[in-house]
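Sequence and structure are no longer studied apart. To make this concrete, we show below a single chain and its fold as tokens.
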Amino acid sequence: MKKKTHYKHFNNAGHKLIHLNGKDRVLLDYMCEWMDTQNRITLDGFFIEKFIAHIARITDERVMYSKKQVTYAIEKMASLELIFHSGKKGVYFVSPKHFANGTLGQNKKNFLKVQKLLEDTTSDKTLYHIPRKFTDC
């Protein structure tokens, strides 16, 4: 997996990000750095261990995470609709409404893909509203 060095953040997630503590936000940023151009990321045991080791290394072990903390943060991000489960074990989409790792055109495709996924898996069709203009996000 090739590490990404940047991603786009749209300024429409403040009402959700305010519910994350600092450690949760560091995890979200790390996920955004590693997601592919479809905003897809595998959040499995390997990813969690890699993240925990990375934070311990860059902070000289002054900041430590437990697997339980990371798992809880992932669940919190899913409840805030910052990430969405793909239907495949451990595979998630980082919300393309709020974050992008590709062109605007690719991000619009990702947005529509997540909307379709949600329509297929939930009866609440308003869960992930598509703006009239994608650039209104």
User: Anything to note?
Assistant: Residues 104-121 form the longest helix (18 residues).
